[in-house]
Amino acid sequence: MTGDGTRCVHGGHGEGVLGEALHPGPVLSSTFHLGGPGDPTPTDFYGRADNPTWRVLEAAIGDLDGGECVVFASGMAAIAAVLRLAGRDGALVLPSDGYYLARSLAHDELGPFGVEVREVPTAGEWPAKVLDGAALVLLETPSNPGLDVADIAAAAAAAHAAGALLAVDNTTATPLGQQPLALGADFAVASDTKALSGHGDVVLGHVSVRDGALAARLREARSRGGAVPGPMEAWLAHRGLGTLDLRLARQAANAAAVAAAVAEHPLVSDVRWPGLPHDPAHAVAARQMRRWNGVLRFTLPDEHAVGQFLAASRLVTSATSFGGLRSSADRRQRWGDDVAPGLVRFSAGCEDEHDLVADVRAALAAITG
Ligand SMILES: *Cc1c(COP(=O)(O)O)cnc(C)c1O
Question: Which fold would CATH assign to domain 4-241?
C-alpha cells in the first residue's frame, strides 16, 4: 500500500473480522471494564487516557506522516502540547507571520514563566544569533495566511546544530503534501480541522513524532492537560481522511486555476500560491512538497473591495478556516493578522474548476473600486 489514495482509504482499517462492522462506530465511553483482581490494567481504562477510536485515527495519520501520531482536541491543543513539552528549556523561536494564536500562546502564556520568545519570518533571513540558546523552533510552511515557505531540511539542520528541536506546523500542506519528519523535523503538528478532516464539521489536531519515547511523553501530556478529542470527532476525522487524496487533488487544481485567474485582474496584487512557477517560494516548495495545497492568497485594494467580491460571488463563502469542500475566503486583517486590509486567504474547494473560475471572475468584475 504505497499510493496516497490507497493509504487514505485503507489507513486504520485492520483485518476484517467475521460478522463485524466494516465501519465500526466511535467508542463513546468514558469508562471501561477493569476485570478482576490480578488483571493487568488494560490500554483502555478511562476516556481521557486513551480510546480505541483515537488509535484507529492515529494509525492512519501516523502512517501518512511517517511517524507515531498522537491526536489532540484541536490544532491549538497539539501546538500547546509541543510548546509546553519542548519549549521551556530555552528560547522559543516562532514564525512572525504564521498562525496568530501560536504567537499569542507563546507570548501570553509561556512568556510569563520566563520563556524567551523570538520571532522570525517564514521566508528566511533569520538573524545570526536567533538559535543561540533555543530549545524549540516552530515553523509553519506554507504559512497561514502569507503562503510563504520555509526550507524544512535547512531549518532542521540549523536547529539541531544549535541543540534545539524543530516542530513544523503542517496544516496547510497536510501529510500528503509534505512530510516534515522525513525532512528532519522532530515534530509534525497540524490542525486537522482543515483539509485533513475536510468537511467543516470537526475541530481536531495531532502531533506526529519519529521517537516512540517522545510519543509516550506527548500522550502523558495529553492526559494531564486534558485536551482530548471526543471519540465522535476522531471518527469523523477518520471518515474525512478517506477522501483526502481526492479532495486535495481537486483543491490544488482549483487553487492553480483561481490563482491564474485572479492574477490577470488589474485590481488584484500579490497573488501567492507555492505551486505558481514564478512564486518566490516555488523553488524551495517544489523541493520539499510532494503535492500542492488548496489555499492561496491575494490582495484586493481595500476592505470595501473584499466585501463587494464576497457579496457578488455565488460559490465562495465568507468564512474563516479552510480546506473544506466549499470554497471560502477570509479577510485576514479582521482577525488581527498584520497584513494589508484587502488580503484575502482563499480556500479552494471541490467545485468544478470552470464553475469556480467563472464565479471568481464575475465576483472580481463586480468590484466598482
Ligand atoms: C487553524 C490553524 C491552527 C489552529 O488549529 P485549530 O484546530 O483551529 O485549533 C494552527 N495552525 C494553523 C496553520 C492553522 O491554520
Answer: Aspartate Aminotransferase; domain 2 (3.40.640)
